[in-house]
Amino acid sequence: MAGRHTQTCALAGFLNVFGDAWSLMVVREALYGTTRFSDFQRNTGAARNLLSERLNTLVEHGILEKVNIASKGERYAYQLTTKGHSLKPLLAAVITWSNEHLYPEGSAPNRVVDSATGTDLHGFTLTPTQTQQCETIKVIAGPGASDAARKRLGKLT
């Protein structure tokens, strides 16, 4: 990752953890249910060395937890911590913004919806009430989603 921000600023601190091309993609995958290194690599396209570095950084900052899942020897999975799960409203807001501002109408790669009603959450913003309601939202495949993304996102229903 490029040089660290030295300003005493919440955004600078955030960028020191997530300001590279891969960390938020790893968190996205963890929110989608990905736990294994090989699956993170396949789903993000990150090189092994970069992915390993990002996973270690996210573990170091308490976003992910590295869990030995082998009955003998070492075999690890990565799980979001409570701190990691708290990024869900942020990612929902970023996805919604991207859908509305970066993709032509009807071609968004995924949608942010209320999980109970399936209603699209357009113009999603983070108010205290909405932050509390983030447990009721989920990301589903949109019209522009790849087949692989549809398959992964389909597991969330």
TrEMBL record:
InterPro entries: HTH_HxlR, WH-like_DNA-bd_sf, WH_DNA-bd_sf. Keywords: DNA-binding, Transcription, Transcription regulation. Coiled coil: none annotated. Pfam families: HxlR (PF01638). It comes from the Bacteria. Residues 9-106 form the HTH hxlR-type domain. One of its GO terms (molecular function) is DNA binding. This is HxlR-like helix-turn-helix. It comes from Thalassovita mediterranea.
